[in-house]
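Sharing a chain and its predicted structure for anyone who wants a worked example. Both blocks are below, sequence first, tokens second.
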Amino acid sequence: MDRNLALEFVRVTEAAALSSALWMGKGDKIKADGAAVEAMRKTLNDIAFHGVIIIGEGEKDEAPMLYSGEKVGRHVNDNEHDIELAVDPLECTSNLANGKPNSISVLAAGPRGSLMKAPGTYMDQIVVGKDAKGSIDIKDSVKNNLSRIAKALKKDISEVTVCILDRPRLSDMIKQIRDSGARIRLIEHGTVSGAISAGIENSGIDVLMGYGGAPETVIVAAAMKCIGGEVQAIIRPHNEKTEKETEEMGLKKDKVYHTDDLAKGDNLLFAATGISDGHFLKGVVFKPDGGITHSIVMRSKSKTIRFLETHHHFFEKPQY
């Protein structure tokens, strides 16, 4: 995939962000998500490529648009799908609806077979950037991991910042982090944003620990391939349906999935646009004649990371 397609894909996340940002703080997460999905789908179908959604809004019977298996792109009727996509049109839906931070629109893409299909369940995970790559072991203790991360980053452990979900299930891990002396940034939602922040220099986050959605972990892995960071994850089906899906997909509950298991090869793209202000991306700002978006776009082939501030001028209200 070339750099031009990377910039086309950032237009996709920008469209989803602009459309859903209109619903910030209005208390309606369904309409906010629907706006993001509709805008992302329309913009994808304006791009000349062959694509298929492998991680999206769910199965066809659960989602009318951007469902797993949906063909996208201007050549949607072609038999060959050159590119597969994992998308989250609006991560942190509840946060946006309630006027809270860390909502983003995100997309990862790669050639056929490059992104792991994952059921709609959870994964225990640990994520670090390139400077701490090789220092983590998800089956080792929290303290040992943080000690190695601190050493790799040339920091005292008291200076290492861990991003983790604020959940009762993670209370023991949070205690272990505190006992190690590390700093903590608790988040309500937004593991994709938190994980990517761990790979961005000077974001204020050094490592993400805990758990997140399995589909989102695949998206994170694609980003880490572009950044040069590392993901380790273990799948944790949460009910009978996802137990069955995990087995049908050939995934193993006791296996540690590494970055290259989740996102294969060296021809991956990642794009994200901030919707509400977050760890490394500002949210959408509206002005009288349009809006301003802040995005990141990355390619694993060149290891390039671009931050884009885009000024959108609306001569009329955009139709997504």
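Comments welcome. The radius of gyration is 19 Å.
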